[in-house]
Every structure is written in C-alpha cells, then in structure tokens.
Amino acid sequence: MTESDWSAATRNWVTTLMFGLTALVAAVAVPWYGLAHGYSGADWAWFAIVLCANGLSITCGYHRLFAHATYEARPALKLFYLLFGAMALQNSVLVWAAGHRVHHRYIDDTERDPYCARRGFWFSHIGWMLHNYPSGEPDFSTVRELQADPLVAWQHRHYLTIALAMNFGVPLLLGLATGDVLGCLLLAGLLRLVVSHHVTFFINSLAHMFGTRPYTEDNTARDNPVVALLTFGEGYHNFHHMFAHDYRNGVRWWQWDPSKWFINLMRWAGLAYGLKSVPWFRIQRARLETQFRRAEAALERRPDRATLGHLRARMAEEYAAFTSAVQAWTQLREQWLQSTRQAVADRWERSILQSRLRELERALGTQQRRLRLLCAQLG
Q1: For residue 160, how far is the Cα from the chain centroid?
Q2: SS3 268
C-alpha cells in the first residue's frame, strides 16, 4: 500500500465531530460554568469516580480480560466492564479487541498496525480514528470466542443505545441526586469523557515513544511510569508487549498498576479467577537477554574493541552462566510440573524443587547486577 493510498482515505465524520465537539464544548463550557456558578465537592467526586470506572473498564475489562484473556470474570463483573466501557465511547468490545489483537500481531507495521507509532504521534494518538484507513477495519476473525460470549454479543448489538444511555443517564441521575444537574453533566459527563479519551490514547502514542525498553527492543513499546500514573498502570508497555498474557503490567510491587490491584480485589471478592502470570525467571531472562544485546552492541561501537579481550572474555563467561541457568531452570520447571500432576507426588520433593527454582531466580538477579556494571564499563 502506497502513501497515496493512505492519503486518499475518506474522513470519518462521526469520530471527527465527536472528538472535536466534545473537546471544544468542554474547553468553553466547563470553565464558564465553574466561574459563573461553581462546582460542588460532590460534582468533582463523581467526576473522579466515573472517570475511574471508565478507565478500569477499559484497562481491566476491554484490554486485560477481553482482548488478552489474562483472567476469567463472573457475569456481574463482565457486565460492569461492558456498561462503563461503552460509556468511555471507545466502541464495542468486539471492535476494540479485534483492533488491539491486530496491533499486537503487526506492531510497528505501518500498513497493518491500526495505530502504528512509526506514523507519528498524532496518527497513533487520535489520527488513525479520524479517517477510514484500511488498517483500522476490524478483523472479527481474531475474536471468534468473544463473538460466542452472549454478554459481549449483546453489548455489540446495542452499543449505541448503551453508550448514549450511560453518557447521559448516569450524569443526569447523579446530578439529580446532588442537586446540580448541569454541574454533573459537565464534569461527570463531558469533561470526564474528554479526559478519559486522551488519557487512554496516551497508551498508543506516548507509551510507544518515550520511556525505557528493559524487556525487548524488538518493537517501539516502552515502560513509562508517568504514562502508567495517568492510565491505571498501562504505561508499563514494554513489559506488556513482551508478556501480553500476564494480567499485570507493572510487575514489580512498587510499580503503579491500579488495574492489577483491582483485578486482585475482584479475585478476593470471587468475581475474577484464573489469573495468568509469567514466571519470574522468564521475566529476568528477558531483561538479561536485552542487556546482553546492548553489551554486544556497545562492544562493537568501541573504537578500541580489538584491545578489549578481557571484557569480551567476561561477556562470554556471563553468557555461558546465563545459558546454563536457563537450561537448569527449564529442566527443574518441567520436573516441578510433572510432580504437581501426580496425585501421590511427595510434597517434600515438590518443596525442594521450588527452593531450587527460587535459587536460580536469585542467581539470575545477581547476574543482572553484574551485567549492569559491565555495561557501565563499556560506556
């Protein structure tokens, strides 16, 4: 597909008017009402609550549950996601998940990735929705199992009705309850929608342009704690694109990932189950492989690389130790899985295997620190 084919894409007037008018009215009406009448604390509280409901429905529901199947959810939780996800006006789950799965399959492909970051900030942030680009057409063959879900199918059939009812009905009811209908409509309705849109879109734009790539450098996805703060934890995007079927994005305990915490809360409440997570050893392995690639590249860039025999020897030793640890972990992991499959397996034997697995994980963590020092020496 040529550049002229892309430039010939027709304007999508529905999305253009929706994004343009909501942003314009919010920029004018929200401050005007605030200066003329003022907003109550309840107005701002409902703005925050509904914004969080929308955000978590997209991150925990549309993204981690429906698009990536990182856990299972009871019907009540699914219904919450479907209602408040529709309120976020980001299309039905079927359309959203179909596009997102294609994005993961063809990431950074300027012709097939629906919101390819290589086409620039504006395109990946919002531009891809303002025209009818070929890559934006949903491929429903990627979401067959979602089409078979009766709740998902119901939302898709009645998406427009649900979206309109949620966007007008919920703020109206909240306004009647607080005694400030227009204030709630402007904050919990209009401003909340505009903020929800652009905060979510930062995941497609900023999280592919600014940040670090500790797990893989094979794509543009980056870990960005600032974007994570704004997007309910979705900013740890390099991890996500490496381990898309992990229910977590912020994998470390100190990383800001409210979506991970909300899913765990739902598990505690009995509304979520079957949470999938990647073994810690595989995560460390990905980080080390990336570090080895960077160290090799740094060696090749050094003008005095011919005289760096001792550093090359250290690199070879570290890589040999890394390969040996990976092989040992793979064997131990298989033994542990076999022992858990046996109904009469000895608990003591399984505990020994688990201890040895943890030892290997700690050893890999130590090697990461050594490799960081080596990379520092290489500049």
Answers
A1: 25
A2: helix
Q: How far apart are CA 96 and CA 227, in angstroms?
A: 20
Sequence-ordered list of residues with C-beta below 8 angstroms from that of 374, at least 6 positions apart, any chain: 295, 311, 314, 315, 318
Whether 217 and 293 have beta carbons less than 8 Å apart is answered as yes
- Number of domains comprising the chain: 2
Nearest CA to 94 among 53, 135, 153?
Answer: 153
The tokens describing 117, both together, are: 């970051």
Alpha helices in the chain (DSSP H): 3-7, 13-36, 41-56, 75-87, 93-105, 121-125, 144-147, 150-157, 159-164, 170-178, 181-184, 192-204, 225-230, 237-242, 258-268, 280-301, 309-341, 347-378
Which of 248, 273, 298 terminates a domain? The answer is: 273
342-356 CB burial, b ≥16 within 10 A, e <16: eeeeeeeeeeebeee
Residues 186 and 298 both lie in one domain: no
Please name which of 193, 199, 242 lies closest in space to residue 221, comparing C-alpha atoms. 242
- Which structure tokens are listed for 57? 């429905």
pLDDT tens, residue by residue, 247-259: 999 999 899 999 9
- Which residues span the domain enclosing 338? 280-378
SS (HEC) of 40-61: CHHHHHHHHHHHHHHHHHHHHH
What does the block give as tokens for 183? 């204030």
Among residues 56, 49, 89, the alpha carbon closest in space to that of 233 is found at 56
Whether residues 269 and 328 share a domain: the answer is no
CB 207 within 8 A of CB 218: no
- Give the span between the Cα atoms of 341 and 334, in whole angstroms: 11
Q: Are 204 and 219 in contact (CB under 8 A)?
A: no
- What pLDDT digit, counting tens, does each position of 3-26 carry? 545 567 899 999 999 999 999 999
Cα 345 off chain centre by: 38
**Stretch (H or E) spanning 72:** strand 72-73
Identify whether residues 193 and 54 lie together within a single domain.
yes
Helix (H, G, I), strand (E, B) or coil at 11: strand
239 with 306, same domain: the answer is no
pLDDT digits (tens, 9 = 90+) for 77-104: 999 999 999 999 999 999 999 999 999 9
Q: Which of 219, 239, 273 is the last residue of a domain?
A: 273
Residues 197 and 333 occupy one common structural domain:
no
Secondary structure class of 296 (helix, strand, coil): helix
